[in-house]
Amino acid sequence: MASTSDIRNGLCLNLNGDIYSIVEFLHVKPGKGNAFVRTKLKSLTTGKVVENTFPAGHKIDDVRVERRKYQYLYNDENGYNFMDNETYDQVSLSEAMLERPDFLKEGSEIEILFHAEKNIPLTADMPQNIVLEVTYTEPGVRGDTATNVTKPATVETGAEVKVPIFINQGDKIKIDTKTGAYLERVKA
Question: In which domain, by residue range, is 154 found?
């Protein structure tokens, strides 16, 4: 058991029969009345973000979690399959547990958050950005240089990304996995 003084970003806790991760918190000490902690919690099972307020000194049921690196293998009817590079254990995750599975490339590494006592996967974190090759895009039109002109491009995983007009087929680009936005062209 932990108390509200132990609250920090990333702490996982058991609340109302679900496991939540603290996304944001604020200790509040009003001039009149008791202190409290205002939090934003993200459900690790549904992904829903809720707000909750704890009175100061309140006991919270924290959950011990472990982050482990896994390598993406393949996708089948059971879900997305990953392998631990140290133990060679494999785990299958549903599409709902992944934020942007359309950017998963064979061999790429992700972090999976496990419930330490029950050894069950809770959520998966994609790398912040990923480098992929453009497999198809229309050629840019010379002279079309208005500010921030973009065109659709298909990358090697099949996902579609908006890219600047100077990007050509075969170029490698860096993509933000949270937003799906083009970041920069990568020199090979």
Answer: 129-186
> Could you tell me whether strands 109-115 and 79-84 are parallel, antiparallel, or unpaired per DSSP bridges?
unpaired
**Tens digit of pLDDT for each residue in 154-170?**
999 999 999 988 888 99
CB contact at 8 A, 45 and 20: no
Band of residue 90 on the pLDDT scale cut at 50, 70, 90 = very high
Residue 69: its pLDDT value, please?
93
- pLDDT tens digits for range 74-83: 999 989 999 9
One domain, residues 133 and 108: no
Residue 80: which of 106, 114, 115, 54 has the closest Cα?
A: 106
Please report, for the domain that includes residue 22, its CATH number: 2.30.30.30
Whether residues 182 and 138 share a domain: the answer is yes
DSSP string, 116-168: TTTTEEEEEE--SEEEEEEEEEPPPPTT---TT-EEEEEETTS-EEEEETT--
